[in-house]
Amino acid sequence: MPQCGTEKHVSAPPSYTGPFVAVVVDLDGTILDDNHRVSDVTKATLYEVASCGVHIIIATGRPREGVAAIEQELNSYFRCNSRVPGRATSLAEVKGFHLVASNGARIYNTTGELISAESIDNSVVRAIYERVTESNINANSEDSMLVSVHQTGAWWVNNVLPEEWLRRKYGTLPEVRQNLSDFPTDGVGKICLRSFNEGTLRTFQKELDTKYEHYITTVMTSDHCLDIMPKGVSKASALRMVGEILNFEPHRDAIAFGDSLNDRDMLESVAKGCIMKNGKNELKELLPHVEVVGCNEEDGVAHKLREVFLLS
């Protein structure tokens, strides 16, 4: 195994034979700290790993629009380091990262080009809107559901959220339409339902899974968030597609990090999965064989990568 840490930021030779050829990282609760930022330690570590010839893949439930600020920050860091004498000389050598967005419904390559898009059937999207509208009419404020919808190039919500919080977390603002009849039904990659009442969401999840089992995949990403994607779409399915493009097999060649239930299948599908210390207890109970690493606030991903890739 090459000692990548012996000469920082220098691209590995084509004969690189390290433990993994792909690193897959979730964002929120994983490489992002609690202030929704990527630390300098994590940025430097991702760059060093990429300099070893390893593919970096970000896999998130966010739409691409909600990743743009982080994408720009990381790419800027990679470019700046690539121009330093003695380090990789161009982004052709350190290529940035692939992005799996909306829990696998959209995949973008290192240049930001959309290379895969999966969408929920229009009629199912419309039926979900109608059912949510019906439910919200009879609900109090705690039981009502906020709807967030991801399309390619667009992000919609049905309620006004604090602008400062949105900009701090996502770096952008979604389109707001209070009436779901004004929401798009074409090209919807993911629907996210949020409610203060976990029971409301879990009941709704069971109903949707029963009615539309052949059309959608659902996952509770937190106690207050239900994600709905096209049938068979997940971070794991997207990772397999990226592997086909980049010529690696996730179950043999990839290490992945995550903290929530939308990371479960991804963590099970790779050669080595890692759950963050701050990850959901339910995830740890479902995957007792998966290693628990440091928490997001303490650069847990970076420390594990430095250990695995023998970085100084």
In short:
This protein is of the alpha/beta class and 312 residues long. The protein has helices spanning 27-31, 40-51, 68-82, 122-137, 163-170, 198-211, 235-246, 250-253, 264-269, 281-286, 300-308; strands at 22-25, 55-59, 97-101, 106-108, 114-117, 146-151, 154-157, 175-176, 190-194, 216-222, 225-230, 254-258, 272-276, 291-293.
Q: Can you describe this structure?
A:
The structure is a single chain. The chain is an alpha/beta fold and 312 residues long. The protein contains 11 helices and 14 strands. It has helices at residues 27-31, 40-51, 68-82, 122-137, 163-170, 198-211, 235-246, 250-253, 264-269, 281-286, 300-308; strands spanning 22-25, 55-59, 97-101, 106-108, 114-117, 146-151, 154-157, 175-176, 190-194, 216-222, 225-230, 254-258, 272-276, 291-293. Helix 2 runs parallel beside helix 11.
Instruction: Please name the CATH topology of the largest domain.
Output: Rossmann fold
Tell me the number of strands. 14
Number of helices: 11
- Overall geometry comes to globular
Quaternary state of this entry equals single chain
Evaluate the radius of gyration: 20 Å
First-last Cα distance: 14 Å
Number of domains: 2
Strand order of the largest sheet: 5-4-3-2-1-12-13-14
CATH homology superfamily name of the largest domain: HAD superfamily/HAD-like
CATH architecture of the largest domain: 3-Layer(aba) Sandwich
Largest sheet features = 8 strands, mixed
Q: What is the averaged pLDDT score?
A: 90
What level of helicity do the residues show?
25-40%
The chain-level structural class is alpha/beta
In terms of DSSP E residues, the strand content is: 15-25%
pLDDT < 50 runs, ≥5 residues: 1-15, 88-92
What letter string, H or E per element, gives the SSE order?
A: EHHEHEEEHEEHEEHEEHHEHEHEH
CATH class of the largest domain: Alpha Beta
